Amino acid sequence: AAALAVASLALWSWPRGSHNLQGKVVLLTGAGGGLGRLLALHLARRGCVLACADVAAEPNEETVALVHQQQQHKQAARAYTADLTERADIYGLVQKVLEDFGHIDILLSNAGVIQGGALWELSDAQLDLVLDVNLRATMLLVKAVLPHMRARAEGHVVAVSSSTALVPGRGIVAYAASKAGLSRAAM
Ligand SMILES: NC(=O)c1ccc[n+]([C@@H]2O[C@H](COP(=O)([O-])OP(=O)(O)OC[C@H]3O[C@@H](n4cnc5c(N)ncnc54)[C@H](O)[C@@H]3O)[C@@H](O)[C@H]2O)c1
Is the keyword RNA-binding assigned to this protein (predicted)? Predict the structure, then answer.
């Protein structure tokens, strides 16, 4: 709740005149969850058109329904079910969004998972999950959208990181490593 409050405050205080987001197509991952849902609703208010992606179909569709309700039209958002641990889902997602909208103005890689524990306490599956969703999926998404953005000479990529990328936290070593990797992957 505290993180959402901070995010909400940051979005609320974002200078409105600085970027015109009207009609921008945003591919937003993790849209079914806390921060993702908040971002979807905020960006829709700023005039963005949202391609909302999540592995959890029902909460993601709920987010889209909330955007429709808020904006009072059904073109404001569309739901896509994709498991970001699956390479085929990631490339399929980008392809489908491009087919549906023609282009992607902003990739907002927000989906993230946290698995607590020291390295020796995590199973290989837990380690894979954190690194795959938080780091690998973001890099593959960027790899998939970048050629289209470069062809249009337009586009933005935003990946949600964490303070743990900078300040190591005890017991969240995999999560911290994934977020630190994201920072290093930024170009
Ligand atoms: N909440 C915090 O305190 C906090 C602090 C710093 C950074 N963050 C970062 O903010 C982002 C959002 O966090 P949140 O608190 O809203 O998380 P959340 O758990 O509420 O939501 C994450 C969303 O990602 C989706 N997701 C998980 N695995 C997926 C997969 N394999 N494929 C597709 N979607 C998947 C979930 O279904 C969920 O809807 C994350 O990247 C997180 O690391 C959160």
Answer: no
